[in-house]
Design goal:
Blueprint lengths: L23 E13 L1 H9 L7 H14 L1 H4 L8 E11 L7 E13 L4 H19 L7 E11 L6 E2 L3
Antiparallel strand pairs: 1-3, 1-4, 2-3, 4-5
């Protein structure tokens, strides 16, 4: 892979033509975390945040974002998604380690193009939603380490991030 696929021979941006590609089962998995104060994590865990169920709302926001990826990223194809799953893990740490919520977004489809962008978009919006819901008590939260963890399906096969 030594060329950018979203540019034509004249260097103009274009949507990649996927008409000749086989429809296969495609999976994209992205992961990342939002770091926060211990008290903020405690609020999330107890369900007593002022705006309500932080993780439940973040899960729905991530699912909605996956479905809207082509509206946000100009050259993404609109896809018929068959599955979107958003999972959270609460990370309680002792100083100097950081308390965090780790999020994994898994997106699936059967089609001619992958769902990596949908997984990454779902991840980021889920984490941004946590920030939005908790910013009144912790403006110093940091979203970090967001990346594609896995991709499966299609001609290029599987990718699994190192580590």
């Amino acid at each position: 892979m030594n060329t950018l696929t979203h540019f034509d021979d004249q260097g103009q941006a274009h949507m990649v033509d996927v008409a000749a590609k086989a429809a296969t089962h495609r999976i994209g998995v992205a992961g990342g975390r939002i770091e926060m104060l211990p008290a903020t994590l405690a609020l999330i865990e107890s369900g007593s945040a002022k705006k309500g169920d932080v993780l439940g709302i973040a899960r729905v926001a991530g699912i909605m974002a996956a479905k809207k990826t082509s509206d946000l990223i100009p050259l993404c194809h609109p896809l018929a998604l068959t599955r979107v799953a958003i999972e959270f893990e609460l990370i309680h740490a002792d100083a100097p380690e950081v308390n965090a919520v780790y999020c994994t977004a898994t997106v699936e489809t059967v089609g001619p193009t992958g769902v990596e962008m949908e997984a990454l978009t779902a991840l980021q919006v889920a984490l941004l939603t946590i920030y939005d819901m908790c910013k009144a008590v912790d403006r110093g939260m940091t979203i970090t380490d967001c990346k594609l963890l896995q991709k499966h399906g299609g001609k290029s096969g599987s990718y699994v991030a190192a580590g």
